[in-house]
Design goal:
Rhopdopsin 7-helix transmembrane proteins, mainly alpha
């Protein structure tokens, strides 16, 4: 009986202070481990390919692709942090309070930066579709680089302020050895909800509703005048079609993003995770991390340039001199 009780502890040698392992079906643990391992490998590999593609090929150095690069960087780190999430599958954290706090802190920064990047992608598509004549002058590479830098800096500052107490005193909210917990007060939590979830999601939804309304009206206008356009007008039509295709592609990215993240945020921010069964919590968590490997898959389906870049990378043509000048569009 004593052996059985010790086997249920995270640290059997610490009988009085160790956390107990939650009772979960062995099949569920194995399935969760396999799924998270698959997500980790797929997420890090695919997003690394996106990072290499956009960074290497000069044709891809556009404002919109810089935003995709920022998103790929954040998704890549999400894949890295999934490895740490796998350590919590059996309900125990074995790396100590400092590593727990650092892991949670960096994970929150990356998630916040990812959400901020989604907002900027929505703004970019809004400007391209709703104000196409001034898009190239208003949205430049320098401005996008500055915006991306501000987004990441804001994420670091925000999470530092929210988790300051945890950073100064790691493990202050843990009740037993083997627990990985960070906590913030009510006001900070409310600010986090508004700045990291409700506000960005509202902006994303409103901008994309406006984008698709304008895109639909432009599509109708183009169809009605397609027979009478000049050669110059045909070029304009092609440009508008290209922008709309990009809007649809990134719209899919945004919708998938909301589908994957909303359940996780709704559960964690309302405290309902304690009321759900372990299977539901595992599903919501896997869905949250799975979003980060879906974006490159979406690019592969919708962006021919990504498929060309993959061929260059897989066949090692990327190592040839002047490969950065290759035509991938």
């Amino acid at each position: 009986m004593e052996v059985l009780e010790e086997a249920e502890l995270c640290f059997p040698q610490l009988l009085n202070s160790s956390c107990k392992k939650p009772k979960r079906p062995h099949v569920q643990l194995v399935v969760t481990y396999v799924v998270l391992s698959f997500i980790t490998v797929l997420t890090t590999t695919l997003n690394l390919l996106v990072i290499i593609s956009i960074s290497h090929f000069k044709q891809l150095h556009t404002p919109t692709n810089l935003l995709l690069l920022s998103l790929a960087v954040s998704d890549f780190f999400v894949g890295i942090f999934t490895c740490f999430q796998m350590l919590l599958i059996d309900g125990c954290w074995y790396l100590g309070d400092v590593m727990c706090t650092l892991y949670q802190y960096l994970a929150y920064i990356v998630t916040s930066a990812s959400i901020g990047t989604m907002v900027m992608i929505s703004v970019d598509r809004y400007m391209a579709i709703c104000d196409p004549l001034r898009y190239q002058t208003k949205v430049t590479q320098r401005k996008v680089q500055l915006s991306v830098s501000v987004c990441w800096i804001f994420s670091v500052v925000l999470q530092t302020l929210l988790l300051w107490g945890n950073l100064v005193h790691p493990g202050r909210f843990t009740s037993c050895s083997g627990e990985c917990v960070v906590a913030i007060d009510y006001i900070a939590g409310l600010a986090d909800i508004l700045l990291s979830f409700i506000g960005p999601v509202a902006v994303i939804v409103l901008l994309y509703l406006r984008v698709f309304v304008v895109a639909a009206s432009q599509a109708r206008a183009m169809r009605s005048h397609i027979a009478s356009v000049t050669v110059r007008g045909s070029v304009t039509v092609m440009v508008k079609k290209s922008e709309m295709k990009a809007a649809r592609t990134l719209g899919v990215v945004v919708v998938v993003f909301l589908i994957c993240l909303c359940p996780y945020f709704c559960v964690t921010l309302t405290g309902q995770d304690a009321l759900l069964n372990p299977s539901s919590v595992a599903f919501v968590t896997c869905l949250f991390y799975f979003n980060s490997c879906l974006n490159p898959i979406i690019y592969a389906f919708f962006y021919p340039w990504f498929r060309k870049c993959l061929r260059f990378i897989v066949t090692l043509q990327i190592l040839q001199p002047d490969s950065s000048e290759a035509n991938v569009l």
